[in-house]
């Protein structure tokens, strides 16, 4: 099994470049609307961003005056997140921490959210239990992700993916997924628990079984929060959103 922590340590700089490109757009408006429309209606929220990476959510949510804590399993991601929050003049608590084992008290946060993180989890059900523990009663869990590697387990999707990969290479001179260590990424993607799951259906069923309330999903939010280039490259794997209440 690929060491997930070590893999992402090597990806931090590349992800930081992507975050900086995204922060230069006006897509933060749509991200904030999706988040706040599905959060408790309070003037100042305590928000936990799980798998914060280079700090996109701490930047855009901190700009709105909320208390944001960002955690990531990798030291390098947190280093970049600290640089970005400082550059944008926002305050956030940024910590290196295992997403499956949170060093927070029960009922600490109004919102627990993450983006493109759950597909990397070793044991997502245990992680979801832990996220529920730190949520306040009535608090919101918001998950953004995509079925990035389901094509490896579905022949029909594989055909679509490979045709798109060829087109992307010809048009942009790049792979669909750009990683510093592509071989390790391919190996890891085949091994991860979530890769063959049909989502967000899996998430909805799991969250209901764990006792979450008002569980719902939007299967495709790409028109709201992706650039035209991102949509052109990743259209076979649309971004979805899952929301639930404790």
List keywords for this structure.
7 strands, seven-stranded mixed β-sheet, 18% strand, 246 residues, 11 helices
Briefly say what this structure is:
The protein is α/β, with parallel strands linked by helices. Helix content is 43%, strand content 18%.
SSE inventory with pairings:
Blueprint: H1 4-9, H2 12-23, H3 28-37, E1 46-50, H4 56-62, E2 67-72, H5 75-87, E3 93-96, E4 109-115, H6 124-134, E5 135-145, H7 155-172, H8 182-191, H9 201-209, E6 213-218, H10 222-225, H11 228-234, E7 240-245
Parallel strand pairs: 1-2, 1-4, 2-3, 4-5
Antiparallel strand pairs: 5-7, 6-7
Helix pairs in contact: 2-5
Distance between the termini: 33 Å
Number of helices: 11
Silhouette: globular
Chain-averaged pLDDT: 93
Q: What is the number of beta strands?
A: 7
Strand order in space, largest sheet? 3-2-1-4-5-7-6
Structural class: alpha/beta
Element pattern in H and E: HHHEHEHEEHEHHHEHHE
The biggest sheet amounts to:
7 strands, mixed
Strand content: 15-25%
What is the radius of gyration? 17 Å
Specify the helix fraction band.
Answer: 40-55%
| Uncertain residue segments | none
